[in-house]
Design brief:
The chain is mainly β. Helix content is 0%, strand content 49%. Strands 2, 4, 5, 6, 9, 10 and 11 form a seven-stranded mixed sheet that branches. It has a four-stranded antiparallel sheet with strand order 1-3-8-7, with no helix packed on it. The radius of gyration is 13 Å and the shape is globular. The mean pLDDT is 94.
Length: 124
């Protein structure tokens, strides 16, 4: 399994930007499909974004399309989530996840490795 550590969370005002990072270690990073999920208090875990192994294909959740982007640097074993025009409803714990297989990339139960999460709080 690959180990994942998120960073970059914090308090941000609505309308501003924030970039989350997820550093991978333990195994070769490039074969993994990478994803971001989030979970707000009292809510189910929600798919945010995913990126193919090569970085050529990305998927975004409907609630973040046009505002968030996902990218990866395989040389640095890192995946990023750029969050622009953030809204109070983006407040959640954000998790990085990795999977070795393709399929439905929005399904959290198909990911094999998870980070510990980083808190993002958006103030209005």
């Amino acid at each position: 399994q690959v180990q994942l550590v998120e960073s970059g969370g914090g308090l941000v005002q609505a309308g501003n930007s924030l970039r989350l990072s997820c550093a991978a270690s333990g195994r070769t990073f490039s074969p993994y499909v990478m994803g971001w999920f989030r979970q707000a208090p009292g809510k189910e875990r929600e798919f945010v974004a995913a990126m193919s192994r090569s970085g050529g294909i990305t998927y975004l959740g409907d609630s973040v399309k046009g505002r968030f982007t996902i990218s990866r640097d395989n040389a640095k074993n890192t995946v990023y989530l750029q969050m622009n025009s953030v809204k109070p409803e983006d407040t959640a714990v954000y998790y990085c996840a990795a999977r070795y297989t393709s399929g439905n990339l929005s399904r959290s139960d198909e990911y094999n490795s998870w980070g510990q999460g980083t808190q993002v709080t958006v103030s209005s």
